[in-house]
TrEMBL record:
It comes from the Bacteria. The lineage of its organism: Bacteria, Pseudomonadati, Bacteroidota, Cytophagia, Cytophagales. Coiled coil: none annotated. GO terms for molecular function: DNA binding; zinc ion binding. InterPro entries: DNA_primase_Znf_CHC2 (IPR036977). This is Uncharacterized protein. One of its GO terms (biological process) is DNA replication. SUPFAM superfamilies: DNA primase core, Zinc beta-ribbon. It comes from Pontibacter actiniarum.
Amino acid sequence: MNIQQINSELSITDFLASQGIQPAHRKGSDWWYISPVRAAERTPSFKVNTRLNRWYDHGVGEGGKVFDLALRLHRTATIREVIQLLSAQALPSAATSVKVIQPSKSTVPRESTIVAQGRSPGIEVLEKRPLEDASPLACYLQQRNIPLKTAKPYCQEVRFRIGTRQHEAVGFANRSGGYELRNSWFKGSAAPKDITFVNNGAKRVCLLEGFMDFLSLLELRPQLALRSNFLVLNSLALLSKSLDVLGRHREVLLFLDHDQAGRKVAERLLRSDLRCADASSFYQGSKDVNEFHVARKRQAKQLRVGLGYR
């Protein structure tokens, strides 16, 4: 599929659902969301008009079609990778019966059946199993400078389906039974979307945006794992869900992204009643912890080559 076909055939609301993002409320053809492309907000200001299949973010005065939105949600992906992602979600116009996993009140998944009228039903998790050595997903983690031994306690290999196509990704579970899913070309979420809290019984908590940053921090600062809990937002839009957990700790260390959205959240937390400290200075000059971690490995490799080592 090309970009024009994607924009005409893929519903923005279905694309958002496939990323684990649901509307806060609906009014006719206008569906309102907490903005998925900015820092967390209390009042939904991101509107999708389902009749026009267009989105508009009132907070920044920007809008567009589904492909424009996908580029903003997957900022590290190439245009080709975004086309692959969206093409996998576009379905024929015929109604299709599919199974989706929905959490029960006890967070134990149960199956229910829905009918998708010519739209992507989102992500269906088919199977979960331990990560395997020398697998494509292990190679992907290695590209992000994450050893398998570091990832295994927190991640799984998740096989999932978007429409009729099956894929595999590194899965990072949240507290509600959903998953953050990553591979070399895909970045998405299996609903329900929620935060992830790693409780080591500590009085200090480290706050991060994504699980690649969390795993990178374990590599860079292994002593933290022995004396800290960790809270991974999985999206800045979920900050409000984290405040109760953060408030139960004596100290909150911030390891947020060095972009506009991350800085705004950090400033908000530093002004709050929480006992927060910005701990991001060591990766100054990099967007996030993982980018710094990967760059450091690259520099070390270049140094070894320069000294004549392999």
